[in-house]
Design brief:
The chain is mainly α. The chain has five helices and two strands. Strands 1-2 form a two-stranded antiparallel ribbon. Helix 1 crosses helix 2.
Length: about 110
């Protein structure tokens, strides 16, 4: 699968759920490329904005779309990576505030 195929597949699935790609296509393509790299590297699409442990079970909370996406988008209009956003975020009807990391430190190996 390439970036364009992944984009089209995820767009169809996620928009039906109310999640939209950021309109910054360069950013989106970089993130999708990193997801494909992580899939090749680990066997699953770990969030490219977080450090994966290389163990699927430990990383299941950060397999894209991660479990933090829903609360992030609900509160900030964007997920941590700014890959998935609301339509209002894309239309700049809401502020583009920094989305803090929700993943607990113990899951990050600290």
């Amino acid at each position: 699968m390439n970036i364009k195929q992944l984009y089209e597949t995820l767009k169809k699935i996620q928009e039906a759920k109310g999640y939209f790609f950021n309109t910054d296509r360069t950013r989106v393509d970089e993130l999708l490329d990193a997801l494909l790299t992580n899939k090749e590297r680990y066997g699953y699409m770990a969030c490219p904005c977080r450090l994966a442990s290389e163990e699927r079970e430990s990383d299941k909370d950060i397999i894209c779309p991660c479990v933090y996406r829903e609360p992030d988008v609900k509160e900030f209009g964007s997920c941590y990576c700014n890959l998935y956003v609301t339509q209002e975020w894309n239309e700049e009807k809401i502020p583009h505030d920094y989305v803090p990391e929700r993943r607990p430190p113990e899951k990050m190996g600290f």
